[in-house]
Amino acid sequence: MRDVEWIAAEQRLTGTVSVSMHGGVLTQVANWRGQRVLVKTLLTTDPDSAARFEHEGQVAAALRHPLIVPLLAQSPTQLFFPLVPGGPLRERLDAGRLTVREAVSVLRGILRALVNMHAQGVVHQDLKPENIVLAGGKTRCGAVRIIDFGMSHARHLPLDIHSGTRMGTPHYMAPEQFQGVRGDPRSDLYSAGVILFEALAGHPPYEDALGWLIGTRKERAELPGPPELHPLMLGAMSRDPAGRPASAQAMLDELALACVRLGLPTLTARPMPLPFAP
Ligand SMILES: Nc1ncnc2c1ncn2[C@@H]1O[C@H](COP(=O)(O)OP(=O)(O)O)[C@@H](O)[C@H]1O
Ligand SMILES: [Mg+2]
């Protein structure tokens, strides 16, 4: 676990702008110690909400990756994150579809974060365009920032507070997750497949997502984008987790292969070593 500053008392905030409010948690942008931060504040004493809030803080504190927004500090009722300027992928998709190059690049960023997260025993379980921020508004691999571990499953945490409950957002939720299965990393790969679909099509694959999850509706919109990406998209979105890539790394490898076929760059945003000292 990283060293996250523990602050004993609830912090006074200035310059607050409310972002959302649900599950007894208020999300705000605020000034704190001279920087703009994203603060989540627990406003209820309901034990379930408090347990979920604590869980979110513990998971966020345990992760460290350039494409995952870190927890800066926490008080008994607040979680502080650095504010990533740029806006969520949702906002970008609302403005129009991505090009193939952009969609592939954003997917690569999501998968790179997932490789790290899954290796640390964490499954996000609520990946969707609202929970992906694009630093600087850029549709690039290195600009991807994953947020919101409020519904995540962590192998290292003794209590699975979400077991038996149905959570998530129907369009992006894997069918087994809808059935109550928690902690399968392949559920995140399903969501990543839906995000790729939506980024290229401009809409999610199922009009009636709930009907599809229940199994009463079978129709899926036509696969968007170039055929080179279709096996990856179909595989990731298969109803049965066994039909999906075995891991985020396997999906990343499949994506790299598709990029070669498409003549797109396969390099990730990893900084390249200089051939000689400048
Ligand atoms: N660190 C951040 N930087 C910039 N925007 C953020 C950050 N964290 C969250 N947001 C924005 O706030 C919204 C709500 O935050 P989120 O953590 O997803 O909380 P909720 O539990 O309300 O879904 C996100 O959809 C995103 O637009
Ligand atoms: Mg969210």
TrEMBL record:
Protein's UniProt keywords contain Hydrolase: no
Coiled-coil segments: none
All residue ranges annotated as the Protein kinase domain in the record: 11-257
Enzyme Commission number(s): 2.7.11.1
Highest taxon in the source lineage: Bacteria
SUPFAM superfamilies xref list: Protein kinase-like (PK-like)
PROSITE patterns linked: PROTEIN_KINASE_DOM, PROTEIN_KINASE_ST
Pfam family, one: Pkinase
Enzyme class: transferase
GO molecular function, one term: protein serine/threonine kinase activity
Protein name: Serine/threonine-protein kinase
Organism: Deinococcus taklimakanensis
